[in-house]
Write a structure and sequence with these properties.
Keywords: Aminotransferase, Pyridoxal phosphate, Transferase
Oligomer: single chain
Distance between the termini: 45 Å
CATH architecture of the largest domain: 3-Layer(aba) Sandwich
Strand content: 15-25%
Protein name: Aspartate aminotransferase family protein
Bound molecules: pyridoxal-5'-phosphate
Strand order of the largest sheet: 4-12-11-10-7-5-6
Largest sheet: 7 strands, mixed
Organism: Xanthocytophaga agilis
CATH topology of the largest domain: Aspartate Aminotransferase, domain 2
Number of domains: 2
Structural class: alpha/beta
GO molecular function: identical protein binding; pyridoxal phosphate binding; transaminase activity
Number of helices: 11
CATH class of the largest domain: Alpha Beta
Family: Belongs to the class-III pyridoxal-phosphate-dependent aminotransferase family.
Length: 379
Amino acid sequence: MDLFNVYPLYDIEPVKAQGSYVWDATGQKYLDLYGGHAVISIGHTHPHYVQKLTEQLNKIGFYSNSVQIPIQTELAEKLGKLSGYEDYHLFLINSGAEANENALKLASFYNGRKKIIAFKKSFHGRTAGAVAATDNPAIAAPINPTDHVHFIPFNDIEALENVMNEEVCAIIVEGIQGVGGINVTSGEFLQKARELCDKFGSVLIVDSVQCGYGRSGKFFSHQHYDVQPDLITTAKGMGNGFPIGGLLIHPKFKAIHGMLGTTFGGNHLACAAGIAVLDVMKQENLVENAAVVGNYLMDNVKGLPGVKEVRGRGLMIGIETEEPVEVVRKKLLFEHHIFTGYAGKHTLRLLPSLALTKTEVDIFLEAFSKIVKAENVGV
Ligand SMILES: Cc1ncc(COP(=O)(O)O)c(C=O)c1O
């Protein structure tokens, strides 16, 4: 059987990884500034993470959500403490799309409505509701688009005011748009969204799948402002590579048996991974590190020739380049052995481990400045 060929692949096979580095099958070492797409939060194969997962695997790896699983409660308590959302409730799933799918459902169960406000350039995942709220017709199958979702311009307060009324079930917005190009949601906009949701009884969902879990230099990126969403979705960095997603739910939502459910969500191994991530984030002050090292990177990249704009917060960084980003990315990967991501044709996207050091940033800066200088003079 062949694989269903949906991914364009680089001809590189990582076989080993540690911290911010991966090694391929030929022994070549790479600096990983992509983190497997924002997933590696505490660094590859962190010893505490490996130990916690190994211990759990030797005890019990899985049982269904029909029995007591205290490790779920431990994860919820630790997440509540570290994120500052101790009074919220946690529903565990396996991915970002599922987190958003369940957020949209819960919002609709809550107020009985179906109109969703989403934003231009948004990305919320590929399941039915999540992809319907994603502004990319190319990834929506004919069954996905729905009249329930209305797209308005991002960060546009006037457009939001014009569309809000008693029919709106929920606003779903990324704290920082990732796929859309690393566009930071403004505090003013989020505050207005909060105010309008309160006025009309709508639900504010902040998708923190990519910008969450410490990446922005706060636990959730909206915590740079004084705004509390009703529902917060998370995944990616939550398990440092083990599939896990979470939906943080304001206490005003009442749980009814059977209203949400999943087979794999909250399994023992996923929870062990999630707990190990939170332990390391706390012990190693990784949220603070993301802020400090991210600022260092952004400050030093701004003003380099060939750089048009630098956007982002903490270690979620978009560098808009004059040259097509694919050229820059390939040179970084094949000539300097540095993994990066992209968002659109001209934005280099950096989503490294939150344990990245300034020394590792310097390695990137040296390589990147050589490339953009050379591209700029047409060499
Ligand atoms: C903001 C955001 N939401 C949702 C998702 C979907 O997450 P997953 O691929 O885990 O379903 C992504 C994935 O890139 C994302 O960036």
